[in-house]
Amino acid sequence: LNPFLDNSNPFSLSQGNPDLVPVKSNSFSFNYSYISQKLTLNSSLFASFTNNSIESIHSALNDTVSYRTYKNIGLYRNAGMSFYGNWQPNKNIKISLNGNSAYISMNTNDGSGLHNSGVNYTFSLSGDFTLPAEIYLSTYGGYYSPRISLQGLNNIYYYYGLSLSRYFLKKKLNVSLSARDLFPIRKYYSGYTRTSDYLSNY
Predict the structure, then answer these.
(1) CB atoms < 10 A from the CB of 78, how many?
(2) Distance separating alpha carbons of residues 102 and 45, to the nearest angstrom
(3) Rounded CA gap, 155 and 145, in Å?
(4) Which residues contact 171 (CB under 8 A, 6 or more apart)?
């Protein structure tokens, strides 16, 4: 909404749009749940559509300078499913899984002809374990597929880690050691933004 022109990068200008209006979204879902002493499951089928979604719009001012602003021009459609599971076979082990996948289609309502579509998905997995000597081990990890936008594709994202902890002094003191994203040391991401004027890769 802020109309201030951000020109801190002279080759990539960005400006808000104070004329944006609220987005109206319509969504539908069908859910199923199963709960027992050791297992919890939840799944969902969903769909939604929006006729005036706020989208980030990129254009080229010249051969070297790009300009980004926001407009209520999106015709957004998606349909997919999500899943959650929690399994605890005994008091020392708990494993959780969470994921979703959706097909997304994006168009514009202003006659510009912009269009993009594809599948987005994410998943995460975690485990909590009680080891001998009351040491607690937690592990986790997750992955986010490249996010589809009206004019391109954004970066993937993934993470993983673990932690060890133990209580002392009748559980009044907790000492923990944790690590995240140990290998590789560097992560490489890529994506692109496409307009009728240019194609930007990053």
Answers:
(1) 19
(2) 10
(3) 8
(4) none
What is the total residue count of the chain? Answer: 202
Cα atoms in the Cβ-side hemisphere of radius 13 Å centred on 52: 7
In this prediction the pTM is 0.80
CA-closest candidate to residue 150, choices 54, 62, 86: 54
Euclidean distance between CA atoms 80 and 33, whole angstroms: 17
Query: What is the number of other CB atoms lying within 10 angstroms of the CB of residue 7?
Result: 12
Neighbours of 105 (CB within 10 A): 15
The angle at the Cα of 76, spanning 149 to 122, to the nearest 5 degrees, equals 55
- Cα pseudo-dihedral 43, 125, 96, 154, rounded to 10: -40
Tally of CB atoms within 10 A around 71: 19
SS3 of the chain: helix, strand, coil, percent, to 5: 0, 70, 30
- What pLDDT digit, counting tens, does each position of 17-68 carry? 999 999 999 999 999 999 999 999 999 999 999 999 998 888 888 878 888 9
